Amino acid sequence: MAKIRQFGSVRHTGESGDGEERVVESVRQHVRDDDRAVEQNDDCEVVEDEAEAGFEDEADENGIGVQEEIVGDLRDQFGDVVQDEMDDYDGDSGDDIWNDDTIPDPLSSDDDEEELERREEVANTQGCEELLYLGKMYGCASDFKVALLRYSLKTRYDIKLYKSCAMQLGAKCSDAESKCPWRIYCSYERRRHKMQIKVYVNEHTCLRSGYSKMLKTSSIAMLFEERLRLNPKLTRTEMADEIKREYNLIVTEEQCGKAKSKLYRQRKASHEAHFSRIWDYQAEILRTNPYSTMEIETVPGAVLQSKQRFDRLYMCFAAQRETWIETCRPIIGLDGAFLKWDIKGQLLAALGRDGDNRIVPIAWAVVEVENNINWEWFVKHLKGDLGLQYGARFTIISDKQKKRDSKDPELERMLWIIAHCYTKGEYEDALEALKKYNKGAHDTLLLQNPPTWSRAFFRQGSCCNDNLNNLCESFNKTIREARKKSLLDMLEDIRRQCMVRNAKRAIIASRLKTKFTKRAHTEIELTKEKAKDCRRYLACGNFHEIDHHSVTYSVDMNLRTCGCMKWQVTGIPCIHAACVIIAKKNRFDDYVVDYYTTIKWRQTYSRGIKPVQGMKLWPRLGRIGVLPPPFRVGNRGRPSNHNRKKGLNESSSLSNKNKLSRDKRIMTCSNCREEGHNIQTCANERVENAPKRPRGRPRKEISGDLSQAQGPSQGPSQPQV
């Protein structure tokens, strides 16, 4: 809606209809962007792709890649319905079409349903009958083109698109010889403010040729955008084979190669544009959210005053930091998630828990790889921002990412019993039971350091009994779409989600009438109900002995402790303490820690992250831009087969009984002909090789050999002169 209001007062000069069409098309372009299922950052600079020499494809203004034939008049192709509509268009109707007062509320249920239908169409989940039918509405011309492309891919008919203006589109079967009657016409409907199909003859008499004029470079790029993001090694041959397998249509490998190159250039240009403004973004964050922390580390360039390369980034907003320090429980969850751009990396995050056991993002960082060095760097910054000092009063929970080796349900049940034990006695009994059931599983479990994940060893005062780091996993799921975007778009999406989350929960907290949060209130009521099964025995002072199912526990109301340890771990009275509170007719609310109160929950969301202006409005510092990290498609060379690495004197021929092993062979140097070393470590002079004997039978010398074979000479046969 903001975009439409912004462009509703566009001024233009000139009296011709061409100027009005340009204004209307400009407005429609921004409205189309607003209707996209995956919204991009409105303030990002547009990086236009360079013209590709030799491309025969004619991409449209939205990058859909549907080939169009521009015609001046569609009446010859689609009949009188075009004439009727042309009579409705007058020279002064351009600005009135997108008047703010006539645009329906985007929050209405009808628009939500139409938006859902549009997403399903783009996701290719509809049949041919649902993609195109007489009277169907589209939000813009781009949606009609996408539907037409989907129809062509599903039916394998070769369709040609005609365009008269931005609001009049038509298509016919491209087979001119058979005179196929199939045709469709779509134009702007003024009453509904949408594009509508007004002529549709769904009858084909032509044969499928296996080709489609609508399947061009840009449309191939659109089809493979997500697949190439997930698998950048996808070759153009595999892309052509995939189109043949899915749609039974023929495209050339050259088209697929150009589509892949186009996507690569677009993404690379987008990343470079974002990293070039990273210093300006830092200045805007610190301007709009004072006392926040945003640190960017780079790798210096090879030459002085040259561009630096991005290394890692840390962000912690002051509102999130102060919220956790003042109102949240002293526990921090740490987790990492993969970034899903072409530039691989990791997003490290630290999250807290509010009084309703919901996530409170504290800080996050972007690093190239998740390792000990980057985690130490991240925790060091977190320690400085939160004032953790030596961590004596705080708890950190993380995911060890250990996989399950057994599918035995009994083993799983016994494992969770060990994890949920609150006392060391229960913990030892559960370990002994596991040892009797499966000695191997018992020994393996001890290697996983149970004191780090069993409640029997949890630090008192954390007011949290979670064994799992699921809240961090929930946060990673909420930013799944953001992690697919470029750096600044991703950071803005995360910031915006936190800002909106704080605002929405502030409204919910202001409407809450109970003293405790919803989940805490439910837990308290359940505890009161279970306390009826307990039996209390009085003792001197403010001590009580509670019997619950033949097991007794000691409750100290002065220190607010119970032998079951649950009260000390969670901060909410256990059923044994609840039995005493109810029997003494005390107020249960007085024994619950303040973290769960509605007042504290309101304070958690009383402050929030401030809005940030768009990229065009950021301060321009004039600093040298930062280069993005190098694209990591994969390791060069032949792919590894993941075989075990052989030892120093180990050969793959050891297992072959018919081949002599190289084990215990003596090494001979090819330089000096001595044993015990090779040419790489040889310090001796080179020894020339002995001349080799010529191959084959040696040749005889006839003159010399013949005289020797006849014996000593008897003298000349002729007298010498």
Automatic annotation (TrEMBL):
<feature type="domain" description="SWIM-type">
    <location>
        <begin position="553"/>
        <end position="585"/>
    </location>
</feature>
<dbReference type="InterPro" id="IPR007527">
    <property type="entry name" value="Znf_SWIM"/>
</dbReference>
<keyword id="KW-0539">Nucleus</keyword>
<keyword id="KW-0479">Metal-binding</keyword>
<dbReference type="Pfam" id="PF10551">
    <property type="entry name" value="MULE"/>
</dbReference>
<dbReference type="Pfam" id="PF04434">
    <property type="entry name" value="SWIM"/>
</dbReference>
<dbReference type="GO" id="GO:0008270">
    <property type="term" value="F:zinc ion binding"/>
</dbReference>
<keyword id="KW-0862">Zinc</keyword>
<feature type="compositionally biased region" description="Low complexity">
    <location>
        <begin position="649"/>
        <end position="658"/>
    </location>
</feature>
<feature type="region of interest" description="Disordered">
    <location>
        <begin position="629"/>
        <end position="662"/>
    </location>
</feature>
<feature type="region of interest" description="Disordered">
    <location>
        <begin position="683"/>
        <end position="721"/>
    </location>
</feature>
<feature type="compositionally biased region" description="Basic and acidic residues">
    <location>
        <begin position="12"/>
        <end position="39"/>
    </location>
</feature>
<protein>
    <recommendedName>
        <fullName>SWIM-type domain-containing protein</fullName>
    </recommendedName>
</protein>
<feature type="region of interest" description="Disordered">
    <location>
        <begin position="1"/>
        <end position="65"/>
    </location>
</feature>
<dbReference type="GO" id="GO:0005634">
    <property type="term" value="C:nucleus"/>
</dbReference>
<dbReference type="InterPro" id="IPR006564">
    <property type="entry name" value="Znf_PMZ"/>
</dbReference>
<keyword id="KW-0863">Zinc-finger</keyword>
<feature type="compositionally biased region" description="Acidic residues">
    <location>
        <begin position="40"/>
        <end position="61"/>
    </location>
</feature>
<dbReference type="GO" id="GO:0006355">
    <property type="term" value="P:regulation of DNA-templated transcription"/>
</dbReference>
<dbReference type="InterPro" id="IPR018289">
    <property type="entry name" value="MULE_transposase_dom"/>
</dbReference>
<feature type="region of interest" description="Disordered">
    <location>
        <begin position="84"/>
        <end position="113"/>
    </location>
</feature>
<dbReference type="InterPro" id="IPR000637">
    <property type="entry name" value="HMGI/Y_DNA-bd_CS"/>
</dbReference>
<feature type="compositionally biased region" description="Low complexity">
    <location>
        <begin position="707"/>
        <end position="721"/>
    </location>
</feature>
